[in-house]
Amino acid sequence: MRVLVAGTFDIIHPGHIYLLNEARGYGDVYVVIARDTTVHRIKGKRTVFDEEERKLIVGSLRMVEKAVLGDTGDMFKSVEEIKPDIIFLGPDQDDAWLRERIATSGMDIAIKRLERRLNYASSWTKDVLQRLHRIEEEG
Question: What percent of the chain has pLDDT over 90?
Fold first, then answer.
């Protein structure tokens, strides 16, 4: 089975590892990495690592079969290209638009969701790193 996971994956942390390991329990994991322009448009901020670096990092993880960059115009295009059996979502990822697109595409794809989230986030990790940097500069 092919399992598609999508996200930004900036600064890999235990929450990402947990998500990908849980997805791996369903089959071969294909990860769609959000493009830099998409992250900026949706989140209004830049990533620490650029899209190619994030793709390299995620693609190097043993539970990941393949990492690819998403499409800048149509987020569903990666779904059409990978043809997953399952799309595995994090607990806070929106699925309404995805369910609608799957229904109109004629594809037979199950949506599964990570039941609980670990208390980690890339934004939290970045904040801690910035604080440590300020302490070093003042120090």
Answer: 65
Taking the domains of the chain in order of start, what are their residue ranges? 2-138
Catalytic residue among 43, 55, 112, 126: 43
User: Which parts of the chain sit beneath pLDDT 70?
Assistant: 117-133, 139
In the three-class reduction of DSSP (H, G, I as helix; E, B as strand; rest coil), residue 64 is classed as strand
Question: What topology is assigned to 2-138 in CATH?
Answer: Rossmann fold (3.40.50)
Instruction: Name 89's bridge partners.
Output: 113
Give pTM, 2 decimals.
0.85
Q: Which of 45, 55, 66, 112 does the annotation list as catalytic?
A: 45
Determine contact, residues 74/37, Cβ cutoff 8 Å: no
